Automatic annotation (TrEMBL):
<comment type="similarity">
    <text>Belongs to the binding-protein-dependent transport system permease family.</text>
</comment>
<keyword id="KW-0813">Transport</keyword>
<protein>
    <submittedName>
        <fullName>Sugar ABC transporter permease</fullName>
    </submittedName>
</protein>
<keyword id="KW-0472">Membrane</keyword>
<feature type="compositionally biased region" description="Polar residues">
    <location>
        <begin position="1"/>
        <end position="10"/>
    </location>
</feature>
<feature type="transmembrane region" description="Helical">
    <location>
        <begin position="174"/>
        <end position="199"/>
    </location>
</feature>
<dbReference type="InterPro" id="IPR051393">
    <property type="entry name" value="ABC_transporter_permease"/>
</dbReference>
<dbReference type="GO" id="GO:0005886">
    <property type="term" value="C:plasma membrane"/>
</dbReference>
<dbReference type="Pfam" id="PF00528">
    <property type="entry name" value="BPD_transp_1"/>
</dbReference>
<feature type="transmembrane region" description="Helical">
    <location>
        <begin position="122"/>
        <end position="142"/>
    </location>
</feature>
<dbReference type="InterPro" id="IPR035906">
    <property type="entry name" value="MetI-like_sf"/>
</dbReference>
<keyword id="KW-1003">Cell membrane</keyword>
<feature type="transmembrane region" description="Helical">
    <location>
        <begin position="220"/>
        <end position="242"/>
    </location>
</feature>
<keyword id="KW-1133">Transmembrane helix</keyword>
<feature type="domain" description="ABC transmembrane type-1">
    <location>
        <begin position="86"/>
        <end position="298"/>
    </location>
</feature>
<feature type="transmembrane region" description="Helical">
    <location>
        <begin position="277"/>
        <end position="299"/>
    </location>
</feature>
<feature type="region of interest" description="Disordered">
    <location>
        <begin position="1"/>
        <end position="20"/>
    </location>
</feature>
């Protein structure tokens, strides 16, 4: 009986070679990522750190920045304009989730399965190609005092002709949310339409054979399968609503007075109109923290619920 011995080398040789190869790949990946990280640092993190520093000063855009500690933050929360801006921003969050997202989902469901469904969504998608300022200009023409809407209601003898759409508060905020809905519902319909098209036909056909129709199909088939996409759409809506600026500035500039201004608009006014850069920086930091926390909590909750279901 002959025994053949095969030399395989030290047991750790293969592992160490693999480790060196992994480190080499990591170093190469880091080299490729370094320019992007440097760019992000220069255009995002450094300005935020500078803004955070200014929020603790009384800087006015000229001269030296004197350290004032937390005075800007204390004054911010005791400011009536700040409370109005926070309430209006809350309106924007609720309205932007309920209207553009809700209407977009309804449009996608209505045309789902119809021949040429894209062409039904196209008229609602076109306003998305318009900038926010252009949307504000168009709807200002419609909603201004004695504007197109008022004249149409008066001609048709319908109620509402006496309303001051852009003057009365909080009506002015809600009609601006309506203008944003006109712009954003179409793209949400497109996204939900793509999500519906990706649903496999098997579960839908099985549910229909069991007698499910309408609301039952939506609740038990479409909605659970659209949930990952809905998480993304609603998350983007939350972030966008917290940063609302262009439509409000184009339509009312936060007025009359400060009744329709948002946090982003108040930040702009404090910095570039009142030249209170420290106060504006404090609002910017507060708005950034609120946006990150709100989006993070929402996404974390949705992802944890999805894991629980799976």
């Amino acid at each position: 009986m002959t025994t053949t011995l095969t030399s395989t080398g030290p047991p750790s040789a293969g592992k160490s070679a693999t480790g060196r190869e992994r480190n080499r790949y990591a170093a190469q990946a880091g080299g490729f990522a370094a320019p992007a990280l440097l760019l992000v640092t220069l255009v995002l993190y450094l300005p935020f750190l500078w803004t955070g520093y200014l929020s603790f000063t009384d800087y006015t855009g000229l001269g030296n920045a004197n350290w004032v500690g937390f005075d800007n933050y204390a004054n911010m929360f005791s400011d009536a304009d700040m409370r109005t801006a926070m309430l209006n921003t809350l309106y924007w969050v609720v309205g932007t989730i309920a209207l553009p997202v809700g209407i977009g989902l309804a449009l996608a469901l209505l045309v789902h399965g119809l021949p040429g469904s894209f062409w039904y969504r196209l008229p609602f998608l076109l306003p998305y190609a318009i900038s926010g300022v252009a949307v504000g200009v168009v709807w200002t023409f419609i909603l201004q005092t004695d504007g197109a809407l008022t004249q149409a209601l008066r001609f048709l003898h319908l109620p509402g002709a006496d309303l001051q759409w852009l003057i009365d508060s909080p009506l002015n905020t809600w009609v601006m949310i309506g203008a944003t809905t006109w712009q954003g519902a179409g793209v949400n319909a497109l996204l939900f339409g793509i999500g519906l098209a990706s649903i496999p036909p098997g579960p839908v056909e099985a549910a229909r054979l069991d007698g499910a129709t309408g609301w039952q199909l939506f609740r038990h088939i479409y909605w659970p399968m659209l949930r990952p996409l809905t998480t993304v759409v609603v998350g983007l809506a939350i972030v966008g609503s917290l940063k609302t600026f262009d439509v409000v500035w184009a339509m009312t500039q936060g007025g009359p007075g400060n009744t329709s201004q948002t946090l982003a608009l108040l930040m702009y006014k404090r910095t570039f109109i009142d030249f209170k850069w420290g106060s504006g920086a404090a609002i910017a930091v507060f708005l950034t923290v609120i946006t990150v926390v709100a989006a993070g909590l929402y996404l974390r909750r949705q992802l944890s619920e999805a894991k629980a279901v799976n």
